[in-house]
């Protein structure tokens, strides 16, 4: 089969056949207009999904915090019968943080993440020196100590907003509180232990609180920088991109947080393709299983834009020169079907020039996904070095589709329900279409649909950040929308900083 379009391109054309998201026939072309400021894809993160993100962020925050070195602490204290003792703590390092309890809470202001009952382990070097009137020389000693901080409480509140089409993350509140500290010295006199507790308990606690709070603020700033650097368009192939501009502020409720993005297909580095404008379009996600972590709702306008883009770019056309029954591509195979064709062009090879005469139309209901595809099929005869068009048959193909989630892609397949045909024009006289119909059925079943399904099975990407994978996904069709309700798993292939840099660098190079 000779293709006049790239393999990735045909996928999105065939999405129009079975991808299942093209406008209803009742919508008129007069309503086409740019939709750059409207949302056609929405993502809702449930409380369970929020808890998953919270646990992941805490895990990554802990791994980025430790080891954390605290400033040197010096202090002079008076100890009975000893006198003034100069004490110094140096190389104080937090090397372990254990989080036993945490929760995330949604509110009008934003998302609050609370860690309670955590423990923190530190190591340090200690040094002291003193002199007394009894011993006029300086006495000093040094050693190591281990410190355990108990009852560590950490809380932060994050504000979410839309800033010129990107997600803005702001730190509204952040704090850390140390409840109790225990210190174990390696060596040293008993009076030193009590002196160490009296002298440094408050300073160590304050240093831990300040250091962790500072690290958290730096981490939130880096995360916001990452979000601001995310591209507003994601390349699909050489011709198309997905517009992932955020529309409106995030929607916060007591059980979920929702995001709306434009989601339409656009030409690479060009103006958005005209899409279907629908008044009061709603892309909210309603997953029957509230335990699912995330829900993704795709309005049919997303796929309308893909269909319009590739159709307007004249990509919906290809030449068929190989079929399972190759005799169908020689006039001898048509001698009893269209005798005048064989008589005029005896034993000449043929090709089928297939093109869509309009963007495919698909109607999505709760039970069915029905597609209607208008196809012009031109029969070409290869005579010497010349391609001679001899007839054009118009086909109206009615098909039904099935969708599934494959990894982070929405994939599908299509099957034939029925089709009708009419003769559009002919240079060889009238054709007995009832004789031609079995041939067309064979072409559709053995060429058109298998070719379509070979690309549809690959699918197209859902708006999921690199490093995360949908898991146990369910698909729900409901009145012109497809909803994907799924859990999410995180692939431990990169740490969070590597994940952010990979994402940003990848799309910076592509654009």
Automatic annotation (TrEMBL):
Gene assigned in the entry: LOC115956041
PANTHER family found in the cross-reference section: LIPID-BINDING SERUM GLYCOPROTEIN C-TERMINAL DOMAIN-CONTAINING PROTEIN, OS06G0309200 PROTEIN
InterPro entries with a match to the protein in the record: Bactericidal_perm-incr_a/b_dom, BPI/LBP, BPI/LBP_pln, Lipid-bd_serum_glycop_C, Lipid-bd_serum_glycop_N
SMART domains given in the database record: BPI1, BPI2
Family classification: Belongs to the BPI/LBP/Plunc superfamily. BPI/LBP (TC 1.C.40) family.
Protein name as catalogued: BPI/LBP family protein
Signal sequence, renumbered to the chain: 1-28
GO CC terms in record: extracellular space
Keywords per UniProt: Glycoprotein, Signal
Stretches assigned to the Lipid-binding serum glycoprotein C-terminal domain: 288-493
Domain Lipid-binding serum glycoprotein N-terminal as annotated: residue spans: 45-270
